[in-house]
Amino acid sequence: MKRRDLLKAAATLAISSTTAQLARAIDASIPVIDAHIHLFDPTRPGGVPWPEKADAKLYKPALPPRYLALAQPHNVVGAIAIECSSWMVDNFWLLGIAERNPIMLGFIGDLQPSAPDFAATVDHLHRSPLFLGIRYGNLWNRDLGAAVQNAEFLAGLKLLAQEDLVLETANPDAALIAAVLSVADRVPDLRIVIDHLPNAKIPAEASARSDYEANLRELSHRPNVFVKGTEIVRRVDGQIKFDVGYYKASLDQLWDLFGEDRLFFGSDWPNSDSTATYDETFEVAKSFIATRSTAAQQKYFWKNSQSVYKWRPRTPEQARLHKS
């Protein structure tokens, strides 16, 4: 073996050893709220708009019993579903699924804030404490930056804030981060969650990257902006990276910006299955948070989700968290 190969092998072993040590440092007794899963059933009449039939990995029922079998070994005691359909009626389908499964603490719906019936639909859904807010971002050909210039859309966001609901974004890039900053300044009382930020599309060009980082710093000064630690694991040059050391610099940057009170856990199941198993996804998240204090681990795995979504307990395990 060449010297260069020996050095490379030694470095890989060192990273793997560090990852193993970090994983052992986590407090295994900490309960977990998984704040980002998707629920759908392609076998129902009418099917689903996502995932596509050609996606053999995802195109099968993703419902709470299947999720529970994967999540309970990791001490998950509750989950929040994020709507993955653009069909308005599916908000009510998802509400019904959540109501029948106590593991579900609530759901984030998919509605258009500028729609004429937005206020009436929010009122209807909000009769249930399981309705926690809506998602709007880089999906379904939407443009948050353009939408927030619309008076009706802005009025819809103000209604969300008034009703103590959440705006969740999707699939961040530089334009979306700039748009979130605009929303945060126009509706400062609105709680905003940026999901998938560990996997954001960061500009390669120096000036654009500088603007992106400046906007992130500005958002870190907005106390109602939170970051969900979804999509940490990703494919790079055809290979999936499981060593948390590979992601450490970018994750530490988010931690330094937003702090232990505004980052929290989500698995992105079953979308995450396209990249990693639930066990693998969870292990990387554990390795990231393991070097922090026990108090910070608790915030990351469940306390911050309560601060963001203000979920109400439905099981004895969840009730114990609510009281602590």
Report on the structure:
This protein has 324 residues and is α/β, with parallel strands linked by helices. It has one domain: Alpha-Beta Barrel (TIM Barrel). The chain has helices spanning 3-25, 64-71, 90-100, 118-125, 144-147, 151-162, 174-186, 206-220, 248-258, 278-289, 294-309, 316-323; strands at 32-37, 76-82, 104-109, 131-135, 166-168, 191-194, 225-228, 235-236, 239-240, 263-264. Strand 2, helix 3 (90-100) and strand 3 form a beta-alpha-beta unit. Helix 1 (3-25) packs across helix 10 (278-289) and helix 7 (174-186) runs parallel beside helix 8. The longest helix has 23 residues, at 3-25. The relative contact order is 0.15.
Give the strand tally: 10
Instruction: Give the helix/strand class.
Output: alpha/beta
Q: What is the mean predicted local confidence, pLDDT?
A: 91
Helicity range of the residues?
A: 40-55%
Q: Are there runs of 5+ residues with pLDDT below 50, and where? A: 1-24
- Write down the domain tally: 1
Strand order of the largest sheet: 1-2-3-4-5-6-7-10
CATH architecture: Alpha-Beta Barrel
CATH topology: TIM Barrel
Question: Could you describe the largest sheet, including whether it forms a barrel?
Answer: 8 strands, parallel
Please identify the top-level CATH class: Alpha Beta
Q: What percent of residues are in strands? A: 5-15%
Shape: globular
| SS summary, helix count | 12
- Cα(first) to Cα(last) distance is 56 Å
Pattern of helices and strands: HEHEHEHEHHEHEHEEEHEHHH
Radius of gyration: 20 Å
- Quick one: CATH superfamily? Metal-dependent hydrolases
